[in-house]
Amino acid sequence: MVVVTPDADHDLLAQLMAGEMALGSTDLKAAAQSYDKAMAISDDPAVAERAAMLAIAVHDDTAAERALSRWQALGAKPAAMAQGRAQLALDRGDTPEAQRQLQILTDSHDKDAWRGFGQVLVAARDQAQAGKLLEMLATPQRLPADPQAWLAMSELGDKLGRHAYAQRIADAAIARFPGNADVYVWSAQMKAGKGDTKGALALLQQATAKSPDNVRLRLVYASLLGQSGDYTAAAKVLDHGPQSADTYQLRAALAVHSKDTAAIAALYRQLQQAAPDVRAQNAFLLGQLAEMQHRDAEALSWYDQVGDDDPHAFDADLRSAVLLQAQGKHADAHELLGQMQMDYLDQPDQLRQAWQLDAEIYMQEQNYPQAINAFTRALQAAPNDPGLLYGRGLAYASAGQVDPAVQDFRSLLKLKPDDIDASNALGFTLADAGRDLPEAEQLIAKAHAARPNDPAIADSWGWVQYRLGHLDQAAQSLHGAWQSSKDPDIGVHFGEVLWKQGDRQGAQKVFDAVRKLDPHNASLQGTLKRLNP
Hints:
mainly alpha
């Protein structure tokens, strides 16, 4: 027996597969050709519909007409047919025909008619033409008794640049649907976007009075009040009524902005006394609130309760590592960060953050080799990351490895030539090593000009002047830096310059002050050995 198989052009399954494969490769033209062939040999209206939409997408008017006719013959719904013919008309630039088909569509009373209307206009090549049709057809007299349709048309008008129309429809929606919070929110957001904050707040106040339990409405109102600087009024809007994770979060943010420690404490107590499911949902926020009140042990406990599927799980672990370090539990902090590096191995951004924090903690411990290793691993996840290059450069410099430190700072300045911190760091590193002093002076001068009141840069400037032998200039700059910031390293530099000027008493006074600040300061110990062997 001989089985007759159709050739590829007449094999429906082959054409459908070819069309889908082309779509997967975003080859619309090939997909349209395959579906055109499939449509001709299929009695499925969905195939004809796909063929029509693809033909319109690639601007093949002849194929689109053919597919639309086939779709209609196979029983396309009138509303869907009108939508397809409107798309084709718009693609051709035939505004009268597009208007006629869109009117048929919106008069059809199909449940998806206005959604289809919006889809046609959003996809139009000529946005000005689409805007005109929107204003002609989506009028208050023609729109259905559905507030979401009014909002969708107003949003579409705003997207198409018909801002006056969009505001007009939004305002009319308020009159038509006075109990709907969404129309108030959208109208207020439009007014705020145009700079009419007063008008937006008035609308939201009116809406909130009508629907005091609407959480979304209160959030929008409080957010706008907060953006206007009225944190107290914003807090009052949220303090009463139903609460959600978002209201708690915004209340905390408002309290922080207004530096209202009493509000932070009150919110913390309220959440502590909430139902178990509410506490579980807000464990991360509870940890943040505890941290703000310096209740580090409680904060650690709350962070530990943040679930693995919580969107704040990574941040909770990161904050826990910081708190463990602050409590002197260095090994625990590194162990936690090591576990995080395993857990987020396939998430480069989180991996980079975990390694960076690990490195920064090693820096605080003055364990520079481990810091260098951690920064290097982080740079493998985020090559040429400016912050990581800067951190590793500092670690190298602190470890006395001048050449790799200089290389990292130079690499950073190639990426960001105007980076003030990198200029200062490279200049100081060169000056401290007694290398390339003219370049070091130039780099620090650039940083000093950009931030003349920065004590760290003033310290670098004083140090390079010291290396150049300009003791008076060095003493002047370092004295100012020491007065602005009682940083131990600045004090050590200032003391050394005073010593070299012959002011041993003044130098010793500064060294004593440094010793009180940091009894084990390595820089102080090394300097004293050099000056007074």
